[in-house]
Design goal:
Helices cover about 30% and strands about 40% of the residues. With about 400 residues, it is an alpha+beta fold. It has 4 domains: about 80 residues, conserved putative lor/sdh protein from methanococcus maripaludis s2 fold; about 100 residues, Efflux pump adaptor protein, beta barrel domain (Elongation Factor Tu (Ef-tu), domain 3, Beta Barrel), CATH 2.40.30; about 50 residues, OB fold (Dihydrolipoamide Acetyltransferase, E2P), CATH 2.40.50.100; about 80 residues, Helix Hairpins. Helix 2 packs antiparallel against helix 3.
Length: about 400
């Protein structure tokens, strides 16, 4: 009996110990489930913004135009007798290009000269009569009316002579105009007429066109926003302007031309359809490499920006309502969001006009892992090698 009681006591003690063990394990499990260990802050690649010396250039499309263009037109009508040049030749100012049949004009000159000589003779006779009439004034030989008539006749003869001389000058000019001459020096293009054609003064089409191309213009289109950005940079002194603004030219395939130019001016009108302004470049073209109508690309060096701020393109996040913005790691290693104003792209980096300062740590990648106030571990961003790109 005593042994049974001792066994029952041992069993009861074992059950109590087991219950306490299970209860303690459950409490520990609940405590562990309620308070898991905190996750470490994410590592985020950042770039520290610093001032950079940047040569400010733009590569823009342009079109070549002749520095002077003149249409060759006849000033008198007639039958074309001869063409006096070869198409594509270089011609001099005043060089004879076409010969209109001159016989009719020579005859008009002869008739006008004869009319002039007749008027001279009439004037001499009228002046003689007037002198005789005035010499006997007061003697009663002639009345005052007759004397006045003789004097007036001499004046009329003088006017007739002036009219005849003007007619002779006109006829002589028409004879000169029968030879159509080059108004400027340059390269002449295709002739629109051949021998035997009837030329008229009011023909809407020119006989040929001459282009002066030893110097040429290159007209370049630049977005007005870029134009305004550069103007503000020049006005503020942020960009040290290059003397003469040199311009290099290349073909659409990327082949560079030997010829270089300088920027003359920007047009004051903005194209309403494209929001672009025209920049005009003067290029010396001694080898006649650049021809009117050719398309080229112009590399314009505007100057040097001593304090440019550049950040990688992928660092800029764009929102439909908020615009361009970046994530910055502050002194507490927490994320801040800032709006920025960006300019052109240089070597896959944005030129930042507003929103960052030197020393700012800008998040480049991992934007989806953070938000405002997130604690992070900033790590230096390693830039991948890339080709240079200018916009």
């Amino acid at each position: 009996m005593l042994g049974m009681r001792a066994g029952f006591a041992r069993s009861w003690l074992f059950l109590c110990i087991l219950f306490v063990s299970v209860l303690t394990g459950a409490c520990d499990g609940a405590q562990n489930q309620a308070a898991p260990p905190a996750a470490p802050p994410p590592e985020i690649p950042v770039v520290e913004v610093q001032y950079t010396k940047l040569t400010v250039t733009d590569r823009l499309p342009g079109r070549v135009t002749a520095i002077r263009t003149a249409e060759v037109r006849p000033q008198v009508g007639g039958i074309l007798k001869k063409r006096l040049f070869e198409e594509g030749d270089m011609v001099k100012a005043g060089q004879a290009l076409y010969q209109i049949e001159p016989d009719l004009f020579r005859a008009e000159v002869a008739a006008a000269r004869a009319a002039r000589d007749r008027a001279k003779a009439n004037l001499a006779l009228a002046e003689s009569e007037a002198n005789r009439a005035t010499s006997v004034r007061g003697t009663g030989a002639l009345s005052e009316r007759e004397i006045d008539a003789a004097v007036a006749q001499a004046e009329l003869a003088k006017a007739d002579l002036a009219q005849a001389e003007a007619a002779l000058a006109r006829a002589s000019l028409n004879l000169q105009y029968a030879t159509v001459r080059a108004p400027i020096a340059g390269r002449i293009g295709i002739s629109r007429v051949t021998e035997g054609a009837l030329l008229t003064v009011n023909d809407p089409l020119p006989l040929a066109t001459i282009h002066q191309i030893d110097d040429v213009y290159v007209d370049i289109k630049q977005p007005v926003a870029r134009y305004e950005e550069l103007r503000r940079a020049f006005d503020s002194g942020r960009i040290v302007r290059e003397e003469g603004l040199p311009v290099e030219l290349e073909s659409p395939q990327g082949k560079k031309y030997e010829e270089t130019g300088r920027l003359l001016f920007a047009d004051i009108d903005v194209d309403a359809s494209t929001s672009e302004v025209t920049l005009r470049v003067l290029v010396n073209n001694p080898k006649l490499t650049l021809l009117p109508g050719m398309f080229v690309r112009a590399l314009i060096t505007f100057g040097e920006d001593q304090n440019a701020l550049l950040i990688p393109q992928q660092a800029v996040q764009r929102d439909a309502s908020l615009g361009a913005q970046i994530f910055v790691v502050n002194d507490k290693d927490e994320i801040e969001v800032r709006p920025v104003t960006t300019g052109r792209v240089v070597d896959n980096q944005y030129l930042v006009l507003e929103g960052v300062e030197p020393g700012d740590r800008v998040v480049v990648e991992g934007h989806d892992k953070v938000r405002t106030g997130t604690k992070v571990v900033p790590t230096p961003w390693k830039r991948q090698a890339s080709s240079t790109e200018e916009g």
